[in-house]
Amino acid sequence: MEPGKNQRLFKDKPIKVLLAKPGIDGHDRGMFVLAKAFRDAGMDVIYAGLLPTPEEVVDTAVNEDVDVIALSLLNGAHLTVFKKVVDLMTKRGIDDIAVVGGGTIPDEDKPKLEKMGISGNYGPGTPLSVIIEHITERAIEARKKKLGIQ
Amino acid sequence: MNKEELIEGILRGDRRAVSRAISILEASMNAELGRFILNSIYPHTGKSQIIGITGPPGVGKSTMIGKLCELLVEQGSNLAVLAVDASSPFTNGSILGNRIRMQSDLTKSGVYMRSLSTHGVSGGLSRAVWEATSVLEAAGHDTILVETVGAGQADLDILELADTIAVVLAPGLGDELQAIKAGIMEIGNIFIVNKKDREGAYLSMKEIEDILSINPGKGWNPPVVGTNSLTGEGFDELIRYISEHNRYEKDNGGKKRRRVYNTILMAVKMRLDSMVAEELEVVRERLSAEEQLHSRNPYEIADEYLKEDVKRLISFAK
Q1: Are residues B159 and B275 in the same domain?
Q2: CB contact under 8 A, A46 and B281
Q3: For the domain A5-147, what is the CATH code?
């Protein structure tokens, strides 16, 4: 969009994404790449910082009312930690926030994550446009549920 | 969740209800529901102390709020935080980075914090801040900390919202002349020189004190306090000033009443703005269709366009 042409002020609220690396993982260069790409795609981006607990991730997602939680790990703990995030959400009855995953996730683990409702699960080398498209898709889903208040 | 449950949830202080209400008001994505929420919660607002934290980017506002959360909660305050960050003028996207500076304190103290994007509005706050503040008041928070974007000299919207304004500065930002300039240096009820451990902090404090003492007013004279968010130095003093100013405002201030007045004016302005935005869109389309405008006086062209369109705008306003 050209500068000064921002007339979206009175239209819809942008997609809001929480980026998080729950568990012990201190490599957040990739998170910054994603944060900037999402911002450039017109989203509101919150980064949860290094080493948040799954509880913190869910609390933040609720307080900020995000549309999508984007989780990433490269240390192999995804089946444990991602699951914990999803379990906490189920326990609190949260069904209007989508969860996507990414990082170094072996192919054989992807169906297990999908089964938990964690989609995407992209690895290194994935074009940013693919990730943005997927997040947008899931965000629309979540937003529809949020708008269910009558 | 139906809308009655939503209101009930807000008044109970339920975080999901509060968060959802703020989203609805932030988006104007469901104007009717937004209006219902505001109508229902407004009788429950107007009792909290709203503290504005403003100042240039990078002086440590967010970190300071983290520390304040810890200390104010210890003193029994039912606190909530709103923090505004800037949106991109090109894509409308934003990185809401305030939270990261205070996350560990938020977790420890259990304080509710919400990040908001300016979504293209200048002035240092987002439009949704007023509504979000009302939601938090209705949810029973007695103190609400509002952090502006990293403010320039003229980002003064906080003046219309806060009961107490703390202007946060850091050493080395400028000399005495900088301190007597119009704008942000006039609006503080409390001036804070943060990063007190840095070189020049004492001098900065003295310079601001000097300028403030040139013509002391009758009522509240803004104090200057040096702080260090990492060690907690100066925070006892800061919190004392905050509660002193709260008492002063309650006894003498007309800020609450002025705020009601200003909020109504702003609501009118927002309605007009949205009409103007639509109007601009029409003009933009017409302009892009025409060529060779560059050799003419832009004001004349504007008049030409308005002659026809202003009538439509007026009839629309009716």
Answers
A1: no
A2: no
A3: 3.40.50.280
What torsion, rounded to 10 degrees, do the Cα atoms B311, B313, B316, B318 define? -70
- Domain of residue B288 covers 260-317
Residue B45 token pair = 């607002």
Residues B62 and B122 both lie in one domain: yes
- Tell me which residue in A40, A64, A150 faces B91 most closely, judged by beta carbons: A40
Global pTM reads: 0.87
- The domain total for chain B is 3
The answer to whether residues B5 and B68 belong to one domain is no
Q: Say yes or no for a CB contact (<8 Å) between A63 and B112.
A: yes
Distance (Å, whole) CA B17 – CA B6: 5
Dihedral angle over CA of B256, B262, B264, B265, nearest 10: 170
Residues of B in contact with A49 (CB under 8 A): 99-100, 103
For chain A, the structural domain boundaries read: 5-147
Query: How many A-B residue pairs are in contact by the CB < 8 A criterion?
Result: 116
Which pair of structure tokens corresponds to residue B264?
């109504």
A74 min Cα distance to partner chain B (Å):
21
Note down pLDDT in tens along chain A; length 150 residues.
Answer: 344 433 343 356 889 999 999 988 888 888 999 999 999 999 999 998 888 999 999 999 999 999 999 999 988 899 999 999 999 999 999 999 999 999 999 999 999 999 999 999 999 999 999 999 999 999 988 988 887 765
Contact flag A9-B119 (C-beta cutoff 8 Å) = yes
